[in-house]
Design goal:
- This protein is α+β, with helices and mostly antiparallel strands and 231 residues long.
- It has one domain (9-230): Creatinase/methionine aminopeptidase superfamily (Creatine Amidinohydrolase).
- 31% of the residues lie in helices and 22% in strands.
- It is built from 4 helices and 13 strands.
- It has a 4-stranded mixed beta sheet, with helices on one face. A 3-stranded antiparallel beta sheet has the order 1-4-5. The chain has a two-stranded antiparallel ribbon with strand order 7-8.
- α1 (9-32) crosses α2 (39-52) and α3 (114-132) packs antiparallel against α4 (140-153).
- The structure holds manganese (II) ion.
């Protein structure tokens, strides 16, 4: 097996299968998540479901962050219990025949406040703008810049504290890198994430992450990036 930024058709089919497993796991999470569950319980559920749907394991330790814990991009699940009307951020990936997937959604059990909706929409539109220019020949730096400029213009520039994306394959993070220091150019057949976020210390965080095969602006995941409010 090679480990190149431009994937073969076979590699792409394995990455897509890995992403399909995670799509199914996310369906299960949306069906089962409930007030009072802990971050650790949800993370354990995700592991079990990923295996049930055919993963050989996870591509990284699942991030489950409720409420203010969402302000930490790399939050490690705790015994914090879920409350009504707060954000849940889940960042997870499967491994299928050694290939990784990477997926993040932020949603609410209950209702989002107007501030939550505002922040969510800034992140969503940042993603949509970045994806619009995602194609062969474009500088990775520029994809990051489009996502970052949108968030900065909305007044949250200092709350976007990581890069916009990365390649995915045998490794969960591999070439190319889409951040403020990138010097790579996108090529057809690269598989990359777009994952802008906003993190407000002590309060909340939002991140939306999809994977794309460069050459198509259609996300690999079938899940919406519209805000989900579970009644
Ligand atoms: Mn990622």
């Amino acid at each position: 097996m090679q480990n190149k930024a431009v994937k073969t058709e076979e590699e792409i089919s394995l990455i897509v299968k890995s992403a399909e497993i995670i799509d199914s796991v996310f369906d299960e999470v949306l069906k089962s998540i409930a007030i009072g569950q802990t971050e650790k319980e949800v993370a354990e559920f995700i592991f079990e479901k990923a295996i049930e749907y055919g993963a050989e394991g996870l591509s990284f330790d699942t991030i489950v962050a409720f409420g203010e814990n969402g302000a930490e991009p790399h939050h490690v699940p705790t015994d914090r219990k879920l409350k009504l009307n707060e954000f849940v951020t889940i960042d997870m990936g499967a491994k299928y025949k050694s290939y990784c997937s990477d997926f993040t959604r932020t949603f609410v059990v209950g209702r989002a406040s107007s501030k939550m909706k505002e922040i969510y929409n800034v992140v969503k539109n940042s993603s949509l703008k970045a994806v619009k220019i995602l194609s062969a020949g474009v500088a990775c730096y520029d994809v990051d810049k489009v996502a970052r400029d949108h968030i900065a213009l909305a007044g949250y520039g200092d709350k976007y504290i990581h890069g916009t994306g990365h390649g995915v394959g045998l490794e969960i993070h591999e070439a190319p890198t889409l951040n403020t220091k990138s010097n790579e150019i996108l090529e057809n057949g690269m598989v990359v994430t777009i994952e802008p976020g906003i993190y407000i210390d002590g309060e909340m965080g939002v991140r939306i992450e999809n994977m794309f095969i460069v050459g198509s602006q259609k996300p690999i995941s079938r899940h919406t990036i519209e805000l989900i409010e579970i009644a």
